[in-house]
Amino acid sequence: MLTHTLFALAHSEVETICILFATSAVDMIRYMEEEWDTLITSIETGELPPWEGIQHVREYLQPHFPPRQNRAAQLRVIGKATDQPGWLVRIWPMLKTTISICSGVFSVAVPKLRFYLGPNIQLRSLGFATSEAQIATAYDPSDLNLFKATSRDIIEYLDVDKEDNASSIVPPWLIEVGKHYEIVCTTQDGLWRYRIGDVVEIAGFDPTDGTPIFRYFERRNVVTWMAGGILTERHVTAAILAVQDTLAPIAEFTAFIDSCSGVPTLAYLVEVHGELCPEAAKAPVRLHKELCRLNEEFDPQRMRIPTIRVLEPGTFGGYRQWRIEMNDSGAGQAKVPVLMWDDAAREWMLARVRRELGVDSNGGVVQD
């Protein structure tokens, strides 16, 4: 990503940024901040930095990267990102649109991305796609979580309120507005009734051709049992976003079930934008109340107060890079789950905790 960023930064005429995930766009901004001096020097001299991973393509890239002293001077005057919104527009004055996947768990990065884009740059959805198939296209440019089912492949809908088998699959003309369905697709490339695992909520039908319009709702079967009730991905996400005014604006998060004390506890790992709020120590108690509000089956007496571990800035971007290197996979597969079950990944994150918020055994709020 750094090499792509360097080439883009060398040009002031960039009009569109198209990047797979909104979280990746935030990673790009962080890389620009961290490597600012190196990037500017490279643009000024026309010499590519000695970064790992580009040795095999360096000789092909170098001829396309001449010195640009004037551009380097412009960027030095602009300087690194500040607390003022619209920094990316100062970098690229002709920027008009940024296109990215901004729904589901990636929506958490949207406020920070909008901050750096400023109020006049259009943020548009890239659509609803997976590694296996293109499920839907963006339907309304102003709504980042509204999609129109594709006509390229066959999209069917598995009713999540019925038995989990083929008899519960519903064709597009029988689905109901407001109901939830798991996407099932049959593709021209050979997949047959392939379950994507994503649940959508039907919003309506396109009046021009009757094609279903839907919103991403949650991943299916990302659940666990806790305190007498079912804890879903949606509960985990909605609860932490609801306490941002007490904690801090959330840049990104994940969570895991902490059983070290013998009683399962929901533990959040978060990266925040800016400083913690003055009353951040109260966030775990608010989080507990919010989880119980979201699912009335939860027993407040049996559910322990969640913990919140605030991570060092850039942890999630570093995690994605670590996963790519560990699995030798593409960037599209380096996703951060809402609930993390991988012990190695969890330990990697825990090694980068900057601050912990929780409660002691007597119910008093503590800060470490």
TrEMBL record:
Coiled coil ranges: none
Domain of life of the organism encoding this protein: Eukaryota
Residues covered by the GH3 C-terminal domain: 235-340
One family name in Pfam for this protein: GH3_M
GO molecular function, one term: acid-amino acid ligase activity
InterPro entries: GH3 (IPR004993), GH3_C (IPR055378), GH3_M (IPR055377)
Domain GH3 middle: start-end pairs: 155-218
Signal peptide: none
GO cellular component terms listed in the entry, alphabetical order: cytoplasm
Protein name: Uncharacterized protein
Organism: Pisolithus microcarpus 441
